[in-house]
Amino acid sequence: MKIIIMGCGRVGARLAGLLDAEGHSVTVLDTDSYSFRRLPTGFKGKALVGNGIDEEALKRAGIQQVDAFVAVTQGDNRNIMAAQIAKHIFGVKRVICRIYDPLRQEIYQSLGIESLSPTSIFADLLKKRLES
Asked: For residues 128 and 28, what is the distance between their CA atoms, to the nearest angstrom?
């Protein structure tokens, strides 16, 4: 599978390493080249400096040939915009977006953007632990 991951923070770098180790073709896109230090030693994918809401940067990353796009930057707005661009402009079949704000996550989920809210996920996990 060919995948673009927008954001090379802890989550993006970890996901890139896991997918790369499984033999997937991974391209990581981040606005700061210093972020690529988080990628694991031996990472065989591509690391490109660019903004995931810039269509030219996405083309350089190969968005026209990818099977999936994952947006995991620190910014909800940028993740949402990039996910919409990937899905609606480039027709990427699988687009997943991290959105910290649970209310916004629900709205975008209802609009067809596959989104996850770590805030909700972690709160649910904590609640389950408290109940056990």
From this structure: 34
The HSE-up count of residue 73 (CA atoms within 13 Å, CB side) is 22
What pLDDT is recorded for position 13?
98
pLDDT digits (tens, 9 = 90+) for 54-81: 999 999 999 999 999 999 999 999 999 9
Distance separating alpha carbons of residues 105 and 101, to the nearest angstrom = 6
The number of residues making up the chain comes to 132
Q: What is the pTM of this model?
A: 0.94
d(CA 33, CA 41) in angstroms, rounded, equals 16
Compute the distance between CA of residue 75 and CA of residue 72 in angstroms, rounded to an integer.
8
Residue ranges of domains in the chain, CATH in brackets: 2-131 (3.40.50.720)
